[in-house]
Every structure is written in structure tokens, then in C-alpha cells.
């Protein structure tokens, strides 16, 4: 039995939980915060917001959510991670310090066949905004807000690159090949979506959340409409 609209959870340990809930609700789905394993069991899909991936790793353990969440992802639950959420969904995470091989303190959920580097845009540009072309999203360029953002440095064969920004500095190993020269900032693999930026912070543009809700519908046979793109219902 599939109700017409899915129930979408937002991992509510840290970060822009309220903003993601509001954006999801504007698309027409039921959205609720998830803090406990019982709440995770009730949702059809999950958003992992930004924050600090080391802190979120600790909180996932404290709230006994890490293993149940990894299990749901393995079973194919649709998920969308923004910024630190992208870091957590990755298979493998590199630190911003080039001398450190892996990122200590981050335990990843392994739902995306990508290598992600944390804080990849350097200290001088802790935050910036960019207008992006985004595959699967129509209309004007997407305004993207990056805050101590990660980047994707390698993608597996089943990963689709959805958006890149022009590279500054030296490309990482394999990056030029994967991106045609840009730095990858949004990817999809099956029912899993990730962006290095924060669409929930851009008022009046819910197109990334609408894309995610369409992915949930595709994946699960939910039949209800995704409200069309409009800036009027914000
Ligand atoms: N805005 C964010 O989510 C920042 C992510 C943070 N720099 C991390 O690596 O976890």
C-alpha cells in the first residue's frame, strides 16, 4: 500500500532542520524531524542537513541512529545530503589538510560511491555563492550557497554529476576527467542525491527539494503530485 504522498524525514541532530522541513512541506509531502530509531523506521526517505560532519558522526552514535540509518540506506531508502550531509553519505572522506589521508572523526554511511574532501574551498573562501546549471532542474540558474563546503573528488561508474563550479587551483587526481575541468558540487546515485551547498537557505527556490521528491516518487511508486515549481507558495 502506497499512500499518495511519501513521508520524508529530516535528520534533526544539527543544522538547518527547520529550513529543510519547510522546503519539503512546500513541495506537498509530509515532513517530520527524525531523532530516534523509531522515527527513522516511519519515514520513506531522509534529508541529512549541513552542520559539522564530525559532530554529526558523534550524535548519530549517541542517538543510536548510525547503524539503523546505514541499514535503511543499504535497503535503498532515498536520501538527500546537503554539505555535511553529503560528507556523511559518501563512501570515503578526505580531510582539508593534504597531509592527513582520511578524515579523522568522520564515519561515513557509504551510500554514495564518491570520494569527498571536507572544507575543500579553503579558509579564504569559507563561504561563497554561485549560480549553477544543474542537470534535471529547469529554468534559471540555481543560486547555491556554499559554507565551508566539501567537494567531490572522485565518482564511481554509477554516479551522475549534476552540477560543477569552475575549478580554482590545481585539480585533484581524476577530477578533470570526471568533470570536464570543473569542481563537482552535486551528484546522484540511484535514489541518493547530494549537494555541497545549501538550497534550503535560498528563499523562494525549492527546485532541489522538488527534484528529491520526484526521485522518491520514482523509487517507491508514490502517486501524488509534486507541486509544480513556483515561487508564489513560499
Ligand atoms: N555547512 C556545512 O555543512 C559545513 C560542513 C563541514 N565543513 C563539515 O565538513 O562537516
Automatic annotation (TrEMBL):
GO terms for biological process: L-glutamine catabolic process; pyridoxal phosphate biosynthetic process; pyridoxine metabolic process. InterPro entries: Class_I_gatase-like, PdxT/SNO, PdxT/SNO_CS. Keywords: Glutamine amidotransferase, Hydrolase, Lyase, Pyridoxal phosphate. GO terms for cellular component: cytosol; glutaminase complex. L-glutamine binds at residues 51-53, 118, 147-148. Belongs to the glutaminase PdxT/SNO family. This is Pyridoxal 5'-phosphate synthase subunit PdxT. It comes from Actinopolyspora xinjiangensis.
Amino acid at each position: 500500500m502506497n499512500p499518495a504522498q511519501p513521508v520524508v524525514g529530516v535528520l534533526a541532530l544539527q543544522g538547518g532542520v527547520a529550513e529543510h522541513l519547510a522546503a519539503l512541506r512546500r513541495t506537498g509531502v509530509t515532513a517530520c524531524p527524525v531523532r530516534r530509531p523509531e522515527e527513522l523506521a516511519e519515514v520513506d526517505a531522509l534529508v541529512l542537513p549541513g552542520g559539522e560532519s564530525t559532530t554529526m558522526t558523534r550524535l548519530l552514535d549517541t542517538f543510536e541512529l548510525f547503524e539503523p540509518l546505514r541499514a535503511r540506506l543499504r535497503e535503498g531508502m532515498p536520501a538527500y545530503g546537503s554539505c555535511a550531509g553529503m560528507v556523511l553519505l559518501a563512501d570515503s572522506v578526505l580531510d582539508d589538510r593534504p597531509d592527513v589521508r582520511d578524515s579523522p572523526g568522520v564515519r561515513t554511511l557509504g551510500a554514495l560511491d564518491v570520494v569527498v574532501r571536507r572544507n575543500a574551498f579553503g579558509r579564504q573562501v569559507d563561504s561563497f555563492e554561485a549560480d549553477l546549471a544543474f542537470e534535471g532542474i529547469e529554468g534559471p540558474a540555481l543560486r547555491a550557497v556554499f559554507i565551508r563546503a566539501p567537494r567531490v573528488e572522485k565518482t564511481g561508474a554509477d554516479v551522475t554529476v549534476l552540477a560543477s563550479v569552475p575549478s580554482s587551483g590545481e585539480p585533484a587526481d581524476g577530477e578533470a576527467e570526471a568533470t570536464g575541468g570543473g569542481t563537482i558540487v552535486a551528484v546522484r546515485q540511484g535514489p541518493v542525491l547530494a549537494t555541497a551547498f545549501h538550497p534550503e537557505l535560498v528563499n523562494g527556490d525549492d527546485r532541489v527539494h522538488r527534484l528529491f521528491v520526484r526521485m522518491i516518487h520514482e523509487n517507491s511508486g508514490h502517486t501524488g503530485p509534486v507541486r509544480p515549481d513556483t515561487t508564489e507558495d513560499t
